[in-house]
Amino acid sequence: MTQVSDVIAALDERYPPRLAEDWDRNGLVVGRPDAAVERILLAVDPVMAVVDEAVDQDCDLIFTHHPLLLRGVHTVRADSSKGAVVHELIERGIALFNAHTNADAAAGGVADALAADLGVVDTVPLVPDSVDPSLGIGRVGRLAQPMTLHQFVERAADALPPTAHGVRVAGDLTGRIETVAVLGGSGDSFLEAVRAVHADVYVTADLRHHPASDAREQALLGDGRPYLVDVAHSASEWSWLRGAARYLEEALGVSTHVSTLTTDPWTARFGATGS
């Protein structure tokens, strides 16, 4: 019988906790370590819709990317957003475990999956780990065949889960690209690292106005690179769940279900210009 503790051990081996950022929170959030696990639901966000899906799928454990309790809370009362999830999980006997920035940096994690979906090969970490430089934050690599920025953005739109956010781009759509940097989740704090590796384009999420504007102004002092491609946060971090599901099935013999629910908070978009 597979127990929650077995799942924890397997996931910690695959996504070592030491790779997590100091500010991050990972691991078992709800559940008994000795509880039995036969079926696992994998999702990006630990929201109530995902809990409902776990109930419908008869899952014993939910494995998410994002932590439920990243910042300190002072109550988990059932009429609060976090508390409602905690109560529902406990009442349904469902455990909750997450791997966040450690899964970003690990081999076969978020960055590798995003790069693979976009056709980026020969990848190395954008910011190598200080202990093992083969691991680390983000990835940079090349396209097997160079293409225009327009063609690449179309590839990204086709490869990633559809969201109301869509795919935003900054740069010359006719520009030729070959070297690609990617980082799942919020990535504007790594714009300087992208410039340092001379990437033609950078794919990430949550690019804020001022960092993106500054990066584009700096790029235009040269050849206009790196171009920027901004996708929905949840879409940039979904692909790795499929590999994690295969790993759990092979390592533990459990069954899995990868959620395809769109948990991006935005539900519609109006007035967009360009194409």
UniProtKB/TrEMBL annotation:
Alphabetical UniProt keywords: Metal-binding
Binding site for a divalent metal cation: H65, H66, D104, H233, E237
Signal peptide from the UniProt entry: none
Gene Ontology terms for molecular function: metal ion binding
Annotated Gene Ontology cellular component terms: cytoplasm
Subunit structure: Homohexamer.
Similarity comment text for this entry: Belongs to the GTP cyclohydrolase I type 2/NIF3 family.
PANTHER family: GTP CYCLOHYDROLASE 1 TYPE 2 HOMOLOG, NGG1 INTERACTING FACTOR 3
Identification of the protein by name: GTP cyclohydrolase 1 type 2 homolog
Protein species of origin: Demequina capsici
